[in-house]
């Protein structure tokens, strides 16, 4: 039976990042290779009476372009659950490290809009460890409630890169890189903006904070947070979405900083359904593909 641990307050992000870095150290850290049948801790972390900090929310909306008002932005639950997700991934019995894991997909199902002043209960756990041709994927599932009412479910999927039994499966042809059509909007982002996002969101992963630290993890330069791009991509259509909506995002190639990227938004029907993408301005490959759908 799953064990639920109620915390007295959000985990300290500096502490959990310290644990995340130590997990990378040889001998004392976590293993470089993880078995697909590795045990996932059957543990849920819970926070009660979570109140949104208006100053942090304002900073978040300023850097993502979302509306600052009485309703939480659609992507803000990711920020609220992030310390709990890091707590799960930095526990000693979690099979792999948080730093170095790649955020590949994200889905937020909002059952109804959340008022900024509503007290939230958040529960987070890991599930569904599975193989992928690039490694192992796992889901971090968070549920948000007001009293006994479930208001939002959020699933973040992370990839631990390594060889698996699927690694040698045939891959489809590489998509042709062609100059993209004129965008609906050009998004500009630089290291300063991403550091502002890191401060507002609490996600201070070293790959986002500077070129030197990003190079230490195999990136040529610092990269934008995937969830910054997810927030910026949905900002222009958020007011047109239904109360009960699912925002599903798949992340492609990282955005190297500084960058200008093309944003495309296509309405599918009149019920708040959109297809959204962020693409490279010269070659057209995707940095993000997403959908909004009712329910």
Explained architecture:
By secondary structure, this protein is of the alpha+beta class. The protein has a single domain (11-31, 41-163, 178-294), classed as Thiol Ester Dehydrase, Chain A, CATH 3.10.129. It has 7 helices and 11 strands. It has helices spanning 13-22, 54-64, 76-90, 191-201, 206-209, 211-216, 226-234; strands spanning 3-6, 43-50, 102-110, 120-132, 135-146, 149-161, 185-189, 245-251, 259-267, 274-280, 286-294. An 11-stranded mixed beta sheet has the order 1-2-4-5-6-3-8-11-10-9-7. Strand 4 and strand 5 form a beta hairpin. It starts with a strand and ends with a strand. The model has no long low-confidence stretch (mean pLDDT 91).
